[in-house]
Amino acid sequence: MPKGKVIISFLVLILASICLTTHVYAGTFDYSTNGTYIDVDELWIHTTLISADIHVTGNGAITMSGSVLGNPGTSSITVNAVLERQNSNGSFSSTASFSNIRATGAIWDWTRQHTVARGHTYRLTLTATVTRNGTNEVVTASSRPIWVG
To answer: Which of 5, 82, 127, 135 is such that its CA lies 20 to 30 A from the CA of 117?
Structure first.
């Protein structure tokens, strides 16, 4: 066998062994797409996507929105949405909550207008219960914090 083919075969073998021995760890991290922050939980069983977003529309008015996409076979999605205001110490406290917003099937989309006090930073946190094949999975996402001036 020519020396070049031996080297290429050896490199392919090393690359294949690296790919086959890579470990995947469960955890949560923030992932941003176009300014929308979503929590990505690895090893979800029933859920494909959860996202939360918040936009300032002017004069203390905001638009909150969220989406949850269940895997095929999802029978329902129930979401609790919490609007939070940032405290002076950096923590967040609830200022409004919207409970048990339910959708039948695998798609949940929600938009709501709300008025808030100006001069503060806000975020939206969604906690969804995705029901599929008779079992529940709870997933959470928070929007990026946004200043309402």
So the answer is: 127
Report the alpha-carbon distance of residue 136 to residue 134 in Å, rounded: 7
Residue 140 identity (one-letter amino acid): T
19 domain-assigned: no
- Within a domain: 106: yes
Q: What DSSP designation does 11 have?
A: H
Residue 78: which domain range?
27-148
Q: 102-111 pLDDT, tens per residue?
A: 999 999 999 9
* CB-CB contact of 124 with 54 (8 Å): yes
Q: Which two tokens stand for residue 34?
A: 């176009």
Residue 24 has pLDDT above 70, yes or no: no
Number of folded domains that form the chain: 1
